[in-house]
Write a structure and sequence with these properties.
This protein is of the alpha/beta class. It has a domain of 180 residues: D-Amino Acid Oxidase, Chain A, domain 2 (2-Layer Sandwich). 32% of the residues lie in helices and 24% in strands. It contains ten helices and 20 strands. Strands 4, 5, 6, 7, 14, 15, 16, 17 and 18 form a nine-stranded mixed beta sheet that branches. It is globular. The two termini are 40 Å apart. The structure holds flavin-adenine dinucleotide. The site of flavin-adenine dinucleotide has 42 residues, from α1, β14 and β18.
């Protein structure tokens, strides 16, 4: 048994921290996860839409997002919003975002995102075989209310097929065939055959159980204030020893990263979800509403609706207008659901860690080889959890990376 000073400290017990911890344990290292929240708390990793998405090969920073975002700025129920505020960090992030929202960036990121997502999906499958957490490999429906959106998504489907992914353009009849359990008002849609869904809370609970089963340790209610030689220091002043440190604190990672001299451009992208306990209909497949950017995911006997990307600081305050935007869109496309059905359903809010180019940060801190950053997964943190964990473990034990992640270097800005 090695001593405390030889273990790996993982800062953050969200999906990225837990997947990293599990992979590190499987690679033979001792691990302690330090999480400031309580066990089973409400991090971004718990209330998300639960989708595993090889279909998402386009990063958040893309040309269409800027034009669409500008149109949505003045609509209080829109799915995308930037809260105007005087902040140098926000200004720098916004500038970097605009610089990266190009067709060239989208093209050069597509293969990497596809490879990461496909490898993660494979790993999800392996994890499910080791013990079920309810992974559903049924694909995802991208539903389009208008012919115009169907045409746009049809082009995306063509691009997906060009990358070797399964993407089928469906008319109304085909949609009904794929999911007879739910009424949909849509001009058509795309079936992304390799996408999957799961209940993220159940997945996280399973990971925590497996980490303990592998001899790992989890400590809750302890906030890491900074990294120092030979470990980390907690907000309480306590020092915790460890040889390597993995920074997986989601949207808050830049605060800890500052202690090792790393300035990590990051904004929190707030999103909401509403989980209905006794839904009018229970779909078989998860779906995304193309126009409204609202998702619907069956989770056991429940259904979760989610959406919105608000770039507006680290507050978890809920905007009732934007939640109403989610409800209205859901009821429009799934007519069996009525606005009254949402009365009493408490909105959950989570902060996505968003880098300015829409790609994760994954790698060693320049000049601090024992500190690894794993964050910035934006809309894909659940989906990319297992592959991120695997790559973190490879970095720590010194194995060759199974996917070339040079583009994700933490000092790239
Ligand atoms: C509405 C919504 C829907 C989404 N849907 C999907 C989806 O379908 N598929 C998908 O792939 N992704 C989805 N996402 C994105 C996904 O949820 C995130 O990318 C992912 O959860 C990020 O995981 P994380 O572990 O990096 O961060 P978090 O889940 O935020 O975890 C970070 C943890 O670190 C802890 N922490 C922070 N600082 C410290 C510190 N100093 N000391 C100790 N602990 C600390 C925090 O308390 C937290 O528990 C969605 C997000 C939202 C908001």
């Amino acid at each position: 048994m090695s001593s405390e000073k030889d273990r790996v400290l993982v800062v953050g017990g969200g999906v990225i921290g837990l997947c990293s911890a599990y992979s590190l344990l499987r690679a033979g290292r001792e691990v302690l996860v330090l999480e400031r929240d309580v066990e089973g708390g409400d991090s971004c990793s718990t209330g998300n839409a639960g989708m595993v998405v090889p279909s998402h090969f386009v990063p958040l920073a893309a040309p269409g997002v800027v034009t669409q975002g500008l149109r949505w700025l003045f609509d209080a129920e829109s799915p995308f919003w930037v809260r105007p505020r005087l902040s140098l960090e926000l200004a720098r992030w916004g500038w970097l975002f605009l610089r990266n929202a190009t067709e060239k960036h989208v093209r050069s990121s597509a293969t990497l995102l596809r490879d990461l997502n496909l490898e993660s999906r494979r790993l999800f499958g392996e994890l499910e075989e080791e013990g079920s957490f309810g992974l559903q490999k049924r694909g995802l429906l991208m539903l389009c209310e208008t012919e115009k959106m169907l045409e746009e998504e049809g082009k995306m489907a063509e691009r997906a097929r060009g990358l070797g992914l399964v993407a089928e353009v469906c008319d109304g009849e085909r949609l009904k065939e794929l999911d007879p359990e739910i009424e949909m008002k849509a001009a058509g849609g795309i079936w992304h055959g390799q996408d999957c869904h799961l209940d993220p809370r159940r997945f996280l609970a399973e990971l925590r159980k497996r980490i303990l089963g592998e001899g790992g340790e989890l400590r809750f209610g302890c906030e890491v204030a900074g990294v120092e030689d030979g470990g980390v220091v907690l907000r309480s002043g306590e020092k915790v020893k460890g040889r390597e440190i993995v920074l997986a604190g989601g949207a808050w990672t830049p605060e800890v990263a500052r202690s090792v001299g790393l300035r990590l451009p990051m904004q929190a992208g707030k999103g909401y979800s509403l989980t209905m306990k006794a839904p009018a209909q229970l779909p078989r497949l998860c779906s995304i509403l193309g126009e409204a950017k609202v998702t619907m995911t069956p989770m056991g006997s429940q259904v979760r609706f989610a959406g919105t990307m608000e770039i507006g600081g680290n507050s978890l305050k809920v905007s009732p207008r934007r939640v109403l935007g989610i409800v209205k869109s859901a009821c429009r496309v799934f007519p069996q659901f009525k606005q009254e059905d949402f009365v009493g359903v408490k909105p959950w809010a989570g902060l996505r860690p968003c880098s300015p180019d829409g790609l994760p940060y994954l790698g060693k801190v320049p000049g601090r080889e024992n500190v690894i950053v794993a964050t910035g997964h934006s809309m894909m943190g659940l989906s990319l959890g297992p592959v991120t964990g695997k790559l973190v473990a490879e970095m720590v034990v010194g194995d060759e990376a199974s996917v070339d992640v040079g583009k994700l270097a933490v000092g790239r800005f």
